[in-house]
Amino acid sequence: MKKIKLKDISERSPEKFSKEETKKELLKLKIRLEELQNLLYAESKHALLVILQGMDASGKDGLIKNVFGAVDPMGCRVYSFKAPTATELKHDFLWRIHQAVPEKGYINIFNRSHYEDVIVQRVHKWIDEQTVFKRFGNINDFEKLLTGTNTSVLKFYLHVSQEEQLKRLKERLSDETKMWKHNEADIKERDKWPEYMQAYEDAFEHCSENADWHIVPSDQNWYKEYYVAKMVVEKLESLKMKYPGLKKAE
User: What is the separation of C-alpha 192 from the centre of its chain, rounded to a whole number of angstroms?
Assistant: First the structure.
């Protein structure tokens, strides 16, 4: 993938998009997504892994709820990867990730992912540069294994501006429904914004061999949700799935 400069990409929707009309399209996409997920589950020949990355308050939780909330929970699973446990640290960094990939017929969603191991750890210098680039190769091999075994991988970076992020972080101090999300460390992490942008840009460049990254303008939730829903629906439609017929009596 060619070098991406996040500062050159807008965090807002293209001008041609109307909020009202886009929300109507999103409703149609969600209905179609529900149909396709049911077909995916019934056929059980393919799987879909959706990876969501982004800075704090970029809207990962809300996106999962508002885009995937209508699909059958029997065929959709969400995983959130936080700091590795003591047991996980005794294994390679992809060990815990591999256990969470979707089985055939399922959509699995990663709210943060294995990319934390080349983003956060790199920014905080918990690993050296040699390890970072070695992990890029490990990730490419891992994603090649998935895509080579009928697991489609969609990777989304939720591109939020510093201004919008700060606004959302401040809302957590005054909105009782969001206070539980407040973490003082999130404010401090803003000081490392340039380092995070560089780390993400390197990941986009070096980890796109088997699954492209999609940079999603995320200052407006309605557009972000529409964008991701559209990409997911298009990916599932491209699989040309069919319902299995009646099972033969044994």
Answer: 21
Which amino acid belongs to residue 24? K
Q: What is the CATH number of the domain that holds 24?
A: 3.40.50.300
Distance (Å, whole) CA 17 – CA 242: 33
- Which candidate, 204, 139, 142, 154, places its Cα nearest to that of 50? 154
CA distance 33 to 42: 14
d(CA 11, CA 14) in angstroms, rounded, equals: 9
Dihedral, 184, 217, 68, 239 alpha carbons, nearest 10: -140
Tens digits of residue pLDDT in 199-245 = 999 999 999 999 999 999 999 999 999 999 999 999 999 999 999 98
**Does residue 248 fall inside a structural domain?**
no
pTM of the predicted model as reported, rounded to 2 decimal places: 0.95
Residue 172 lies in a domain: yes
Contact 114, 95 (CB under 8 A): no
Domain count, the chain: 1
Asked if the structure places residue 247 within a domain, the reply is no
Domain that holds residue 42: 6-238
